[in-house]
Amino acid sequence: MTQKVRISLDAMGGDHGPSVVIPGAALTLQRRPDAEFIIHGKAEDCLPLLEQHPVLKAVTTFQHADIAIRMDDKPSQALRQGRYKSSMWRALESVKKGEADVAVSAGNTGALMAMSKFCLRTMAQVDRPAIAAIWPTIRGETIVLDVGATIGADARHLVDLAIMGSAMAEIVFGIDKPTVGLLNVGVEEIKGVEEVKSAGRILKEASFPHLSYAGFVEGDDIGKGAVDVVVTEGFAGNIALKTAEGTAKQMATYLRSAMSRTLMAKIGYIFAKGAFAALREKMDPRRANGGVFLGLDGIVIKSHGGADATGFAAAVELGYDMVKHDLLSKIRDSLEVHFPSAAPETAVAAPETPSS
Amino acid sequence: MTQKVRISLDAMGGDHGPSVVIPGAALTLQRRPDAEFIIHGKAEDCLPLLEQHPVLKAVTTFQHADIAIRMDDKPSQALRQGRYKSSMWRALESVKKGEADVAVSAGNTGALMAMSKFCLRTMAQVDRPAIAAIWPTIRGETIVLDVGATIGADARHLVDLAIMGSAMAEIVFGIDKPTVGLLNVGVEEIKGVEEVKSAGRILKEASFPHLSYAGFVEGDDIGKGAVDVVVTEGFAGNIALKTAEGTAKQMATYLRSAMSRTLMAKIGYIFAKGAFAALREKMDPRRANGGVFLGLDGIVIKSHGGADATGFAAAVELGYDMVKHDLLSKIRDSLEVHFPSAAPETAVAAPETPSS
Fold first, then answer.
1. Which residues does A299 contact at the CB level (< 8 Å), separation at least 6?
2. What is d(CA B226, CA B224) in angstroms, rounded to the nearest whole number?
3. Which CATH superfamily is domain A135-287 in?
4. Cβ neighbours of A270 in B, within 8 Å
């Protein structure tokens, strides 16, 4: 085993494909000189670009793949057409074979998750995977999961999410014992579905050593940064994420129209231009780029499809950090402590069990 | 039956009680001269205020109530202590007895919903009530329901929500056949829970005459104003609403801090002050005041607890409009058309069935 961090890239994913992925990888290499790459994509599209980045080329293995998954391919379609043959599949396969430590793709989320489940399988102790988003807040950032990998969650799955999310938070935020909240609704008496209440009881009573359970949180607590990790079932989590994105865009639209309505406002805008530029950057949903797929037997990072080279590099570096701090072992160790039922002898066979 | 619109008010609800409710009612009366009021509250708190509004006093019946439900009372506690005796209960009872056409309270949502279910019961054709919010969007406003009355929803309940929400939209927006979307998650293959998919099929195939079904919408479509009515189960709806409120506050915080960071920004702020004031008003979550409780055998409006007299008047006028345009008959007629199984002869006994 080398000490290098080996990163497998799907060069054909995202709105811009190799023209973003390859310069993005070059950027990462400047900042993470111990990275190595396996780049999967169409030779005719990738090799000329790779020539322009000789430093990157020197630490890259290029592997040609015939098929590129489109951004609007349905997961089943992507699996049918792209299994074994697409750059997305091959990027994951490099991790599966142990040739790479992490796979990064800006391709479509549904296809990437379907292929990840099929190719990498879920961890022995985890039933179902999750997507974790890094959510900008007033106080900094919060990890929110699941934002759409799996619909419906029993109490155990919510506890798994708490453990996986806090392992990720330790790495991303560099803190011990991140605070974890369970997303719920406010009205006392009907407080949430049974699964959420039951997960709350488990998290409270078990006093897990690697996380600090902070109780229920509500939708408006996410943006406040009330906790480091917000745990929720994937349907509600996806709706919360999309609603927040929509509201941020709505506010930006209001602001633009307010600033162009009167002459005074226009003059004010000219003076405050710098402040507005800073604000725009802060409100940019692409700023926090990179969803992390958790619960799989391998690390997979999803970059936003519309990311530029800087944005894609941020996603790659997120993956790099996960490898460097050994996310998978952290999760496995936490789960072993918390759920000793998943003892090593039974766990040996589990990776072969097909996931949902 | 008089042609007047008879409005029953809980004067003790909200953060400010009668000092907002009574001036709010006076404001409404200026704009809706055919309104009459029954005001429920503590005589010592209300009567002196009522003296200050002689025009209102002339069309008001005042009824003393010993108990005021507190904003932090749990629903069960409120029911135990306040049933029959509180101003909140009495306000609802006026509707139940047929003395008023609508009840308005700024009291706590959980208590008001619990008492409404207990006092008014649900409509014959509806199993469970809902709370509808009026959500500001880029294009105007959208009705979103359920935002937290009921957790979990089967397909029939989602269809009920679509029918009730579109009846409300017809009145609030003054349009025929409002467009209705079902809130769902984006990934094609795993699109939503079974109930949402099944409700989508019913809405598509039945081609309901009073609404125009627009298919699934995602969280970010709400703020875009993609449809007139967004239908969702109460847990996800409550989380979406709270998340949007949190994000709006977060954006306002970013904006404030951006505008005070540099001298240039501060100068710009002075020029654009008018624009910022307009923007602040637009971003104010209290602007769209008044949740409507749907599915009950009576009209109940919940005003925001923090509303001022103007805000409370807006909630009262929302209730007035619902009465004037006969919301309950609209809903009942729609439901009869769509679900003829709830035929008049079987429906007669149904109001006696205790609701959940």
1. A95, A101, A102, A103, A292, A293, A319, A322, A323, A327, A328
2. 5
3. Isopropylmalate Dehydrogenase (3.40.718.10)
4. 268
Return the beta strands (E) in B71-193 as ranges. 102-105, 130-136, 141-145, 179-183
The C-alpha atoms of residue B200 and residue A127 are separated, in whole angstroms, by 29
Would the CB atoms of B255 and A279 count as touching at under 8 Å? yes
Q: How far away is chain B from the Cα of A4, in angstroms, using its nearest Cα?
A: 35
Which of the residues A80, A115, A138, A185 would you substitute to probe the B interface, choosing the one with the greatest number of B C-beta atoms within 10 Å? A185
B267–A274 C-beta distance less than 8 A: no
Where exactly does CATH 3.40.718.10 map onto chain A?
Answer: 135-287
Nearest to A223 among B186, B232, B250 (CB): B250
Distances (CA, A) of B350 to A52, B95, B329, B332, B339: 76, 19, 16, 13, 15
Q: Which of B110, B239, B261 sits opposite A187 (nearest CB)?
A: B110
Does B248 sit within 8 Å of A244, measured CB to CB?
no
User: What's residue B263's pLDDT?
Assistant: 82
Query: In the CATH hierarchy, which fold is given to the domain comprising A1-129+295-356?
Result: Rossmann fold (3.40.50)
Which residue in A224, A252, A279 is closest to B246 by CB distance? A224
Beta carbons of B187 and A109 less than 8 Å apart: yes
* Beta strands per DSSP E along B184-262: 212-217, 229-231
A299-302 and A141-145 beta bridge pairing = unpaired
State the pLDDT at residue B1: 46
For residues A281 and A321, which has the higher predicted lDDT (pLDDT)? A321
Q: What is the pLDDT of residue A120?
A: 96
What fold does the segment set B1-128+295-356 form as a domain? Answer: Rossmann fold (3.40.50)
pLDDT in tens, B333-355: 888 887 775 444 444 333 434 44
A52-57: average pLDDT = 97
